[in-house]
Design goal:
This protein has three domains: 3-97; 118-333, 3-Layer(aba) Sandwich (Rossmann fold), CATH 3.40.50; 355-442, Immunoglobulin-like (Sandwich). It is built from twelve helices and 16 strands. The protein has helices at 3-9, 27-48, 54-66, 71-87, 91-97, 123-131, 147-161, 179-182, 196-207, 223-239, 268-275, 301-308, and strands at residues 118-122, 136-141, 166-169, 211-214, 247-252, 280-284, 314-318, 332-333, 341-342, 345-346, 356-361, 371-377, 388-392, 413-418, 421-428, 434-442. The strands form five sheets. It has a six-stranded parallel beta sheet with strand order 4-3-5-2-6-8, with helices on both faces. It has a four-stranded antiparallel beta sheet with strand order 13-12-15-16, with no helix packed on it. The longest helix is centred in the N-terminal third of the chain and has 22 residues, at 27-48. The two termini are 42 Å apart.
Amino acid sequence: MRSHWILIILGCAWLACPCTSIHAQSAAQWRARQMDAMRKSDSIMREANQRANMLAQFQFMRDAYVGNKDPAFQLIFGQYLSWYQSFVGDYQDASRSFSITEVAQSGDRPSPLNNPLYTAQPALTAIPELARNYRAVFFNEAHNVPLTRTLTVQLLAKLRAEGFDYFAAETVYQTDTGLQSRGYPIGKSGFYTEEPICAEMVCTALRLGYKVIGYDALSDATGDAREAEQARNIYRQVFKNDPGAKLVLDAGYAHILESGTFQGGSSMAEHLEKLLPIAVLTVEQTMLYGHPTASNNHPYYAAVMHRLHPEAPLVFISKTGQPWSLRPGYDISVWFPPQTIRRGRPTWLALGGERKAYYVSGEACKHHFPCLVEARYANERDDAIPADRLVLDPVPLDAFPGERVTHDTLPPYSELYLRPGKYRLSYTDVDATKLYSHNITSGNADDGVTGEPR
């Protein structure tokens, strides 16, 4: 199902043959092993999706990963697992399961840190100012690192105020014809929308009055043909009948690349500009954030963080108003601060203060662990993607099945991150049995401060 997407990210992995541990293996043999691993991964994911709930799906994926030590399988399937780890709110393990090392490349522009022409500015204010001169703003994301979606969510209101009226998301299925009227995504709305921040991005766009569309290829096309089909879908749904439209778009990785070779052809953004020569502001968000292992960070990252100590995403703008980007093909690069972990969760889930921490305890799980905790907006159906979701468990979520705790222990606890409002809070076990549910109101000044649920 996702195999033609994973090729985008792992193009360099075909050369990453662990030759020190595999005897006389050629690059072609290593590639063949990874293709086989991809087929196995697709099959495992299809079987996982038949499980009762997201917790059961995640556990099935995790068990498949720990049960197969083949390097080619773990390299490929690690990304599949990371998606499901993000779906259940296990963001730290999601980043560890699949992490792209950002090495310096010959085309990288010099760091702006010591260039007197550039100054650091908050991305939240600088990007809307730049967007005033454009008909379209394209954001990219790392699919298993929802941190790279958080700025997009926060910018949607500011861009709406600048006249942008369409929001296109690669993940949204065109088959969900009820999304616009319903106002929120459900399981059949998309793939990455299973992750609550991604769902929040779509919900926010709908709430603000954007017309939301999905544009991914409906065929089995890959590479250049898929990119061209995506561009045609965008043109057909947005600009063909509304020539004055202003578009905000979310895509994965290099789909938004404006120049250069992409998978042996052209990117979606390049194909779209051929259909409709409009000015596009491309915002790169996948290269300059803190990885689980510091050695995976881009060489520029540590110095900028050490010098500036940012608390929110930043960009660099020159004295003449020109944005700085790390690499050609993008207009501007976003730098994300190192994450802070509180009660086991990254605080970027607060979306710059738009959401508050809400304490949850494992006492409501009634000793059924692991336990899935979900908060849905009170006015949404039970099949809505939760506003936030996490798993409470006395043992690490990546532990082997045989490591389950069998003796009494203090109940685990953590925090959901919720916008002010009313929610239905539910606790379920791996068999989708509802253990406990009640209505809550988030937004009280004491939420997440006293350490007690309301």
